[in-house]
Input
Amino acid sequence: MQTKIRHVAIYTDHHDAMTRFYKTVFGMKQFTNSVEADGRVNTERGQITDGVIGLAILHKSPGLQSGPDHFGFQVEDMDEALNRIRRSFPDILMTKGFEDVPFAATRIHDPAGVHIDVAQKGGGNLKGGYAEEGWNQPRHFHHLAIRAAKPDQVADFYQTVFEMSRIPEWPVRNEFCLSDGQSYLIIRPCEDTSYRRMKQGFDHLGFKVEDLDAAKKDLQEMATAFPDSAPRKVGTGRTGASAVRDMETCPMGKHAISDSDGILIDLLT
Output
């Protein structure tokens, strides 16, 4: 069963500024249309993509938290994926995805509580660009990093259910790096060295760029032209220094930034 990470979702109160950030810095393009609350299709707003992974920048309703909320896999055989969960991870909850969304058929969670959308390849929930093979471009999603109290159990979950391959000889103790053949998932342990490290869930996003200096230049120019989309400085405030140190321990990253909402992003070439 071949699986592929094809979806990431973020909640925000600043949809336009965040969309402009990812389009400008990473060349992402709109590839779905949005369905409004009254059922009307809005062709001016929708999910964006790097060619392979769709990014849903969603309005944060009351009761939801800002930041990365879930990500999604496209699978060759939905029934087999769900049966693997039932057999090996019976405590995992499953529910049906919203019918009007462009990707999810089923929502589950991993053993650390991270929510995951699962879609069948060729399934009816794949709308817009999700129904196509996509394209490759120089700037694109490279990895997702999550925190887990028991990273070995979480790694086993992704290997068993989604057949992700473990990257051998990963240089950080008690961390795991898995791959779907194109993108990577880093599972980092929870630690008591900072408040942020204690919490299970999303840790940071990783993007590959063709030239680090060119990406930095684009960030500076965008901040001047569109201050509301400017990246926030990582090393400021009471927790800034620890956030910088933490990002520097990711073996894949070369330069830590944040988006205009403060979501941490590792850049690499």
